[in-house]
Specification:
Nucleotidyltransferase, domain 5, TATA-Binding Protein, five-stranded mixed β-sheet, 19 helices, four-stranded antiparallel β-sheet, alpha/beta
């Protein structure tokens, strides 16, 4: 999806500075023999096009989501001034194009390079705090930490200003803390995913209940948010410092701790603008978008549980819901034990079990989970799995773990893997379906609760694709599409854990046995 072309008039004095602007970014000024009226044309790798004609007319067509194109358009605007026609002809993401009458951004839009924008500017609609030259917005939020059934889910979103009108229309008025049918949340999630090709990057991460029940909630959220921001930057192509400096990130303040504070300092050093505040989803569109995506992911898991559990109904999953309380009492009387989707640290459960309140442990320091260099990269949001090493006890570190396809996984480094890596990349060769079924078993499958990073090679008639799609629909795993067909490249780009059947592979990986 590209923006509307923006036309300006360039006088003789401006032509060379304009050309120099593009040369300074390493772009070639191309000429075309068949068009004698074209002085030159420059194209970015993101397929934005800038054309100067011999008449002095200059036309820029910026493709949504093209960071380089958006930066160039902003610099062109500072050099040449705003385009004639005002907001209605401004490039999408700089104040116009997609908003209709009566919608945010339809009037009074901020011109590129201008000072503080009026309240109706898409930038101010989306963020009350972003710097005037901000071109990208990012945000994160969590859901499910107070729900007795199901996982806590964190969501993050990153997008260019071009998408503000669409996102404002889609989620701008959604009350993320209110009840909504699961199908409603899932439909919103699907609509957000449909904007992936237009520059919206989403990252979602579930915290396994086995960790939630044992460790401090806020410390787990610290670790998970650090991982999630790294995922977001990887999905957006690890933006260069100049792009990060034009990006604002808004995070929900759940009671952030020292680990997130260290990571925040590292992000700021890389140029990112960072805001941390309570109820961030109320003030920042990016956080609201992330919150809706997280609610959709959790709704999918709960729907899958309702379909799989034979002794329901489960109710809403909230500790105060009568149907949920009735199910807990029936389950306790049956003596069947608590399945993994129950947060057994909640007082409702400990009282049914006749146990004292749970005392949670501190999350191990990052240096106890990763080697020193990898820990620094993790905090900065750019973990390189090709050289990362896991701490495997007090005296050694490793890039290779051997784990069963299903069953108990006792070690700390293993237990925290879903929060340390950007997901799992399957490189199992011709995969027996019985092995895949074991990996995807909800209760104790090795990959249960993981994000699975899949390339473009899977098709609808492929048995592996069908099994993964079913597990995704049931909320057992989260299938994340990526653009890299090669598993090693995919793992490197997204900090993915490579899952192999046997032998060795470069980078951080698990050998399934």
């Amino acid at each position: 999806m590209s923006s509307h072309p923006v036309s300006r008039t360039v006088d003789a004095r401006q032509r060379e500075p304009l050309a120099a602007l593009f040369r300074a970014r390493g772009l070639t000024l191309q000429q075309h023999a068949k068009n004698v009226y074209l002085a030159w044309e420059a194209r970015t790798s993101g397929r934005s096009i800038f054309s100067l004609y011999t008449s002095g007319k200059f036309v820029s067509t910026v493709r949504a989501g093209d960071a380089e194109g958006l930066l160039l358009e902003d610099e062109v605007a500072q050099l040449l001034g705003a385009a004639p026609g005002g907001a209605g002809k401004a490039p999408r993401g700089q104040g116009g194009g997609a908003a209709g009458a009566g919608e945010p951004g339809a009037a009074g839009a901020r011109e590129p390079g201008a000072g503080v924008a009026p309240a109706s500017d898409p930038l101010r609609v989306a963020s009350p705090t972003a710097a005037p030259d901000t071109l990208f917005l990012a945000g994160a939020d969590e859901t499910g930490t107070g729900e007795l059934l199901g996982s806590a889910v964190l969501g993050a979103a990153h997008f260019p200003l071009a998408l503000v009108p669409e996102l404002q229309a889609l989620v701008g008025r959604v009350e993320t803390k209110s009840s909504r049918a699961a199908s409603g949340w899932e439909r919103l999630g699907q609509q957000l995913q449909a904007l992936r090709g237009d520059g919206l990057h989403l990252a979602l991460l579930s915290i396994p209940n086995r960790l939630f029940d044992r460790y401090s909630k806020n410390a787990l959220l610290d670790l998970a948010y650090v991982r999630l921001v790294g995922d977001l930057l990887a999905a957006a192509g690890q933006p260069a410092a100049e792009v990060l400096a034009r990006t604002e990130l808004a995070l929900d303040d759940y009671g952030t701790g020292a680990l997130l504070g260290q990571a925040r300092a590292a992000w700021v050093r890389r140029g990112l603008q960072v805001q941390v505040a309570t109820r961030a989803d109320v003030r920042w569109l990016a956080s609201r978008t992330a919150s809706v995506a997280a609610r959709a992911c959790r709704a999918r898991e709960m729907e899958g549980l309702r379909a799989d559990v034979t002794d329901g109904p489960l109710g809403t999953g909230n500790a105060g819901n009568p149907a949920t309380l009735a199910w807990l009492r029936r389950r306790r009387r049956s003596g069947a034990g608590w399945p993994g989707f129950v947060k057994t640290s909640f007082r409702t459960v400990t009282e049914l079990d006749g146990l004292p309140a749970t005392t949670k442990e501190s999350v191990p320091p990052l240096r106890d989970l990763l080697d020193e260099a990898s820990a620094g990269d993790f905090l900065a949001g750019r973990l390189d799995v090709r050289r990362a090493r896991l701490r495997a006890g007090a005296e050694r570190s490793t890039q290779r773990l051997e784990l069963p396809a299903r069953g108990h996984r006792p070690h700390a480094a293993d237990a925290f893997l879903p929060l340390l890596c950007g997901g799992a990349v399957l490189d199992l060769g011709p995969l027996p379906l019985e092995l895949l079924d074991a990996l995807l078993e909800r209760e104790d499958g090795l990959l249960s609760g993981w994000r699975l990073l899949v390339g473009p090679g899977l098709t609808a008639d492929n048995p592996t694709s069908v099994a993964l799609a079913r597990a995704h629909a049931r909320g057992v795993v989260q299938v994340v599409p990526t653009d890299e067909p090669d598993p090693l490249e995919r793992a490197a780009r997204h900090a993915g854990l490579l899952v192999v059947a046997s032998g060795s592979a470069p980078g951080l990986h698990v050998v399934v046995r």
